[in-house]
Amino acid sequence: MSLPRSARALTEAAATGEISPLDIVEGVLARIEASDGEIGAFLEVRAEEARAHARRLEASKDRGPLFGVPFAIKDNLQLAGWPITCASRILEGHRAAYSATAVQRLVDAGAIPIGRCNMDEFGFGSSTEHSAFGITRNPWNTDRIPGGSSGGSAAAVASGMVPLALGTDTGGSIRQPAALCGVTGLKPTYGRVSRFGLIAFGSSLDQIGPIARSAEDCALALSVIAGHDPRDATSLPETFATSDRDLAGLRVGVAELPASASPAASIQARVAEAIDTMSSLGAEVRPVALPHAEHAIAAYYLVATSEASSNLSRFDGIRYGNRVPATDLRTHYIETRSAGFGEEAKRRILLGGFALSSGYYDAYYKKALQVRTLIRRDFEAAFADVDVIVGPTTPLAAFTIGDSIDDPLSLWLCDLLTTPANLAGIPAVSIPCGFDDDGMPVGLQLQGPALGDAKLLAAATTFQRATTFHDQRPGAS
Amino acid sequence: MTDWQPVIGLEVHVQLSTRTKLFCDCANAFGTLANSNTCPICAGHPGVLPVPNEQALLLGVRAALALGCDVQPFSKFDRKHYFYPDLPKGYQISQYDLPFALNGSVDLGDGRRIDLERIHWEEDAGKSTHEAGYSLVDLNRCGVPLIEIVGKPNLHSPADAHAFLDSLKRTLRYATVSTCDMEKGSLRCDANVSLRRTSDAPLGTKVEIKNVNSFKMVERALDFELARQAAILDSGATVAQETRLWDEARGETRSMRSKEEAMDYRYFPEPDIPPIELATSTIDAQRELVAESWQTRRHRYESAGLTAYDASVLTAEPDIADYFEATWQACDDAKQAANWTQTDVLRAAGERGVGIAELRVRPNTLAEIIGLVQSGLINFAGARKVFNRILDANDGPCETPAEAVVALGVAQISDPHLLEPIVREVMGACEKAVADYRKGKTKALDALKGRIMGKTKGRADPAVVGEILTRLLSP
Amino acid sequence: MDKPQPTEIKVLAELARLRLEDQTAARIAGQLERILDWFRSLDAIDTAGVEPSPYAVVLRNVTRPDEPATATDDLPHGQDILNCGPEQTKDCYLVPPVLGS
Ligand SMILES: [Mg+2]
Ligand SMILES: [Zn+2]
C-alpha cells in the first residue's frame, strides 16, 4: 500500500477511516526495514510498541490533530519507559522516568512514536559523526554526512521513513541537518515549546522543533507542541495559531553575509534564485544590516560550552546511567565520566569550565553575553524594517564523512549562519531551495522576530506551494 | 590566652516552612523512609527544570524584613558547581552576586546589634551517611528551600555567638518563617574563626568550621577552635587557612580541606529561572506579616510590671507570648496571666508533649478562671481544679469554667455567717494553737487556717477566714 | 585575554572530574588555544556599558504555587526514582567511600 507522504495527508486519511493507524505503522516499519540499514537514522525502532499504540488508537474514539501520524524522536527527548542515551555511553541502559512535555503532547494528539534517532553526543556536533553508537548517512549520498546534531531525525524524514521527527536546535541542530538532507526544519521562538524533558545542552539556547517534509507539516506539529508549560519557567504564556498570510507585500530582508561565511558559489546561486521567486510572489526584497552577525559564532560557542559544562555535571553514575566500579569517590567520578563521555564532550566541558572559571569569567563568558545583547539588538532594529530575513542556512552543503572530524574549529564554523537566531531567541526555519553542483540539497533559512513563528511558516508555505524542491526525494529510499 | 581577640562570623542556613520543596512539588517534610520523598526534579534526572516556589521566596522576604535587611527589587538565581553524591545536579541553585537581601542585623537584646552581610535563597542538599567501605545517599532533603544568612565577623566570644543564634532563632520563629530546630537540622550553622592581637589589628587567617549541629555544640566547637588557634600562634607558628569539620563525638575540629584544595565554584546565572523582581507592594504585604519582635514585646512586658526574668521566659517562643498576651488582654491582669502561663500552662503543654496553642484551655478560658478568682467565687486551689478539669475533658461540647465550678463543687465559701461557726469549732478543738497565738506566736495562725480549709474541703475564702480569726483571737 | 596552560587544563579536568592523559591534555590545550585565539576576536567589539544577556526571554517572576503533588501528577516519586540507580542498598544510593580503604 502506498502511504501519503505528508503528515497532514496521513492524518486526514486516518481520521476519515480511509486507512487505519495500524496500516500506517506497518507501512512505516516496512520503509524503515528497507532503508535504515543503509542510512542508520535510528538508534532503536520500537516496532511492537508502535503496533500496540496503533491498535489502542483504533479502539479509542479520540481523533487528535495528529491522529495516526508516526513520528521519530531525537534521542535527547524522553518518553517514559523508553531507553534514552543522548548518543552517549554515560546514559547507556537508562530508561526515562518521565516524558518530555513536547513528546507527550504529540502522543496526546494521536501521533505514534516509532523510535529513537541518532545524534551527535549530547548535541555536540554538526555531522552526527560524534555519536557513541555509530554514524548516520545522508539519504542523498550515503558517503556524505546528514548534518547534525539532529542528523538522525533529518535523515529519517528525508529518506521517507517517517513523515515527522522531533529535533532540537541549540545552534542550528534542526536547521542545518534539514538543509543538508533537503527537508524542512523549524527552530521555534525560544520559550515557545517547553524544554521539560529535553536533556539540556545549552539551556538558554535549546529549543525543540519539528522536522518534516513541508512548512505546513511543521506548522501542524508546532500547533500541537507549542504553548505554555508550568514545568518550564522559561516557557512563554503566548499561544500559537497558524497563519495564512502569503508573500504579497511581505518585506523580506537580505543581509550581507559575514566575510568568514563565504558560501559556496552554487549555494549562493540557489539562494539568489529563491529570493527572486519570493519577489515574483509579491515579496518586497530590501537589504538589512546585522553588523554583529560575524561574532555570533564565537559568542555562541562560549555561552553554549559554559552551559553545557554545567548541564553535564549531573552525569555521575549515581542516580542513573552507567558507572565504573571504584574504591573511592573521586576515582568513581573520574572513571565514570571519563569512560562515559566522548572526546568532543570532554573538549566542550573543559572549554566551558574555562570560560566560567574565576579570573576568566569576565573576559570570556560575560563578554559573550554582552555580544549576545548586541546581536539581539541588531535583529530588533532589522525587524523594525522587514518581516523576515532570508539567506543560506549553511555556507556548505553536506561534506564527505570523516572529512572534518579532526578539526573541531572548521566544523564549528559551519554554524556561523544558524547560531545568531539561538542567541537572540528568534524563530528560524530552513526549507529546501534546490541542489548544488554535486546534487546535494541546499537550504534557505528564513528568520523572523520573536513570536513570529506563524508568519515565518506561512511565508515558507507560500514558497513551497510555488516550488517543488520540498517534494523531491532521494533515490536512497 | 588572654591577649588574643577572637573574631567570629556565622553563616546560618535556615529551612523555610513551606508545604513543598523549592523547585518541585515534593513535600517539604522528612520521609520516615530514605528516598521516599523524591521526584525526577529534586533527584536531578536528565531534562528536568526548576520552577521556584512562590511561598518560599515570600518567606525569605519576610525573614529579611524581620532582620531589618534591605530587600532588593531585582535578584536572580545562580548555579554553584561542585561534585558530591548528595548534590544531584552537580550544582546547587543558589544566589551569587545579586542576593535578594542585603544588610540588616541581629539584635542581641542587650543593646548590641550584629550586622549582617546578606541573605540569599538556595536549595538544600541530600544526606550522606558514611559506613565502613561505602557511603549511602538519601535525597529526601534535596531541594528543601533554604535561606543562607551571612553575618559579618563582628562576634568576639563563643557566648556572643550563642546569643546571636538564640536571637536569630527567636526572630525567625516570630516571623513564622522556620521552626529553627537545630536538633532537627532546620537551622544549621558554619562559623568563620580567627584570632588577632588587638581589636584594631588586621584580621588573622580564618578557619571555617562546618557541621555544628546544636546550640550547645556551637560554644564547645568555638572554644576548642579558639584554643587550638591560640596554641598555634603562641608557639610562633601560623594558622593554616582551611575548612575544618566539627567532630561532635570527639569534641574537636579536624581538617576537611585546605586552601589549595579550595573550590572554584564557577558560578553563573541560572538560565532556567528568569530573574525575580520584588514589587514594593509584595514587600509591604510581607512586612505586615512580620509580628512584633520579641525584643519589643519583652520591653512592653517589663513596662507592665513583669520581672526581666518573666518577660524573657514569656518571649522565648511566639506561641508562649501569644498565649500570655491573649490571656492578659482578656483578664486585664498581667501578673496573673504571666504566673499561669509560666507555671500551669507550660507544664500542661510539656506533660502532654503538645504545643501551647493546642491546649484545650484557650487563653479566653484561662482569663475566665482568673476572673472567677478575682471575683472571689473560687480560690486558687479551686481554680487549679477547674483548669485541670477543662484541660482533660474529652472531646465534645466544652464546659465553661463556671459550669466546672458547679460540677466540682469548688465554689468558695465567703459568707462570714457560714464560716464563723466553723472557725469557732476549730478554735475549740485546737486550744494549744490558740494559746500559742495569744502568747505572740503568730505562726500558730497558719495551723488554724489549715484546719479550717481542711474542714471546708479547701472552699473557704482565705481572706474572710483571716478576718474572722483575727477578730475572735484578739484579746 | 589569557590562554590556559596545559597544567591549567589539568586543573580544569580535575574540577570537571575528567581524566586526561598528558598527551590528551597537550592536544586539547593546543585546540583550546586555537579556539581561544578565535574567541579573542570579541575583544575588538566595544561592549562598555552593554548589559549581558544570560536569558533568551524577558520573563520575570515565574513561580509555582506552594501545593503538594496531587493525584493527577504524572511524575514518578520515591521508589520509582531510586530504582533508576545502578546500585542501591537500605533504600539509599550506594556510592564508594570518600576515601578509599
Ligand atoms: Mg549555602
Ligand atoms: Zn521532587
Describe the 3D structure.
The complex is a heterotrimer of chains A (about 475), B (about 475) and C (about 100). Chain A has helices spanning about 5-15, 20-40, 45-60, 100-110, 150-160, 175-180, 215-225, 265-280, 295-310, 330-340, 345-355, 360-380, 410-415, 420-425, 455-465, and strands at about 40-45, 70-75, 110-115, 165-170, 185, 205-210, 250-255, 285-290, 390, 430-435, 440-445. Chain A is globular and about 70 Å long. Chain A contains 15 helices and 11 strands. In chain A, about 40% of the residues lie in helices and about 15% in strands. Chain A is of the alpha/beta class and about 475 residues long. The longest helix of chain A is centred in the last third of the chain and has 21 residues, at about 360-380. In chain A, helix 9 packs across helix 11. An 11-stranded mixed sheet of chain A has the order 1-3-2-4-6-5-10-11-9-7-8, sandwiched between helices. With about 475 residues, chain B is of the alpha+beta class. In chain B, strands 1, 2, 6, 7, 8, 11, 12, 13, 14 and 15 form a 10-stranded mixed sheet that branches. Chain B has a 3-stranded antiparallel sheet with strand order 5-4-16, with no helix packed on it. A two-stranded antiparallel ribbon of chain B has the order 3-17. In chain B, strand 14 and strand 15 (about 250-260) form a beta hairpin. Chain C has helices at about 5-15, 20-40, 80; strands spanning about 90, 90-95. In chain C, a hairpin with a 2-residue loop joins strand 1 and strand 2. In chain C, helix 1 (about 5-15) crosses helix 2 (about 20-40). Chains in contact: A-B, A-C, B-C. Magnesium ion binds near residues 13, 122 and 148 of chain B.
Q: How many domain regions of chain B? A: 3
Question: What is the average of the pLDDT values of chain B?
Answer: 91
The percentage helix of chain C is 25-40%
Structural class estimated from helices and strands of chain B: alpha+beta
Strand order of the largest sheet of chain C: 1-2
What is the radius of gyration of chain C computed over CA atoms, rounded to a whole number of angstroms?
23 Å
Largest interface: A-C, 72 and 55 residues
Tell me the span between the first and last alpha carbons of chain B. Answer: 72 Å
Q: Which hetero ligands occur in this complex? A: magnesium ion, zinc ion
Radius of gyration of chain B, CA atoms, in whole angstroms: 30 Å
CATH class type of the domain at 6-44 in chain C: Mainly Alpha
